[in-house]
Amino acid sequence: MQKENIIEFLLTSGFNALTYEQKNQIKLNRPTPHLLLTCQDGKYIRTFQKNWYNKLPWLTGCDKRNKVFCFTCVIFGGEKEWSVNGLSSIKNFLRKSEKHAISQKHLTNQEKCHLLGKVRIEHAISEGRRLAAVKHNEQVGINRRLIARMIHVVYFLGKQELAFRGHRENNESLNKGNHYYSRAASTIKKHFLDLKNAVLHVTEEPGWDPISVCTASGLYDKLNDANFVYFLILFSKVFLYIDHVFNFLQSKSLSNIKSCISEIQNLKKNLSDLRNDTNVNNCCDEAILLNNNLEYEDKKRNKLCKITYEILDSLIVQINIRFEDFPKLEFVEIVNEKMFKSYYSEFPESKFIKLLQQYPNTFDADRLCNELAVIYADDRKHLPPHELLDFIVNIGDLHQDIYPQVTKLCQLVLTIPSTTASSERSMSTLKRIKTFLRNTMTNERLSSLSSLAIEKNLLGDMAKDPT
Ligand SMILES: [Zn+2]
What percent of the chain has pLDDT over 70? Predict the structure, then answer.
């Protein structure tokens, strides 16, 4: 087929009638004839410029009809003006063509055109996806470690105790350990009376080995220690909230930033609500309910109050430091592939605006909006950012022409410095906490806190061999 007849042929017979080879051949033969188009613009006469074909790699013309068309839209169907009727007027031509170039239908057609003839593209994509999956898993590993570190900071109280039992850190994972303390606190609280009776039994009944008797009497002292029981109550309250957030952050993907933020805000509010005299008095009262031998005179209550405030303040400060960057990351949701289906019916306008505010002069907003809309509309493109990026790259060498803005956005999301910065910072946060602990721990507090862990051995033994 003669190159100059291609557009006429496509307009009359259509693209689908062609064989696979013919289609591929047509794709590579965009006609770029010179056209005799003019228009009056004020006192000037504008004429058709042949270099528009270089500027707009999709532009084509039909000299028989003396009109310009969009090559890809003629092939695949699109805006009537550009695919069927053609433009015979070049009035405002550049503005019109710019508008067409970022239209959703045109973007979709550009991609179809690039994919045409790449028979092995599906293989390439599936291989790309396999590699992406490997990369993804690595990333998941990194993310998990990152979250685990964040959680460690939230598990501040557990850490206080960890700092004094470093030699045991190798025996069990940190998370497991932390979970243990939170459960240990509530377990001891729940079975306080049973425990007390059991311990008493060990110390008073004959036939026990000296080590058990010794440990049991140590524990008995603890259960009658006003500070210990007070912290037991306080810790079980604090852990109740922290456990909840811990489980939440572990179960949800980090990309669901909004719910993470509200969970963390709730946690802070709940912890602040504990920071008052009423709560301290309630804890004392609950402690007395567990063990009516305990006494909390005003001086003791004041002292416990101070320590309680200090613990809660440190917790809240650490949570603030740890999660300060979270709200800024809300725009990441734009490329949360799990949401694409709902974005398809309702574009995430507010997140989109946040992105533009956070990164002004970075994106071509209209174009990005249309590129995203095309991606949201296509199930095959519902991929996490790095896979999406791979997918776009695999479309062909000219991928930049089709999704330059989404490419930029994916690259941005995948390289957000807060992810690397926070892992570094969490290291130093850990150091700070440990230093803080070493410097501020009094012996009294140390014994109350660490006894939780000491008791757990005994608890374990008793579970195996209840008397
Ligand atoms: Zn087009």
Answer: 70
Contact residues for 186 (Cβ-Cβ < 8 A; gap 6+): 236, 239, 240
Residue 107 Cα to ligand 1 middle (Å): 7
**Ligand 1 geometric centre to CA of 3 (Å):** 19
Ligand 1 centroid from CA 100, angstroms: 6
Rounded to the nearest whole angstrom, what is the distance from the C-alpha of residue 80 to the centroid of ligand 1? 10
Measured in angstroms, how far is the CA atom of residue 442 from the centroid of ligand 1?
Answer: 74
Beta strands 67-70 and 44-47 are: unpaired
* Sequence-ordered list of residues with C-beta below 8 angstroms from that of 28, at least 6 positions apart, any chain: none
CA of 360 to the centre of ligand 1 (A): 29
Tell me the three state secondary structure of residue 443: helix
The span from the CA of 369 to the CA of 37, in Å, is: 33
CA of 90 to the centre of ligand 1 (A): 16
CB 279 within 8 A of CB 307: no
CA atoms within 13 A on the CB side of 94: 7
- The amino acid occupying position 12 is T
Q: Give distance in angstroms: CA of 168 to centre of ligand 1.
A: 66
Between the CA of 39 and the centroid of ligand 1 the distance, in Å, is: 23
CA distance 452 to 232: 8
What percent of the chain lies above the pLDDT cut of 90?
Answer: 28
Whether residue 346 has pLDDT greater than 50: yes
Residues 288-322 have pLDDT tens digits of 998 989 999 999 999 999 989 988 988 888 888 77
24, two tokens: 């591929």
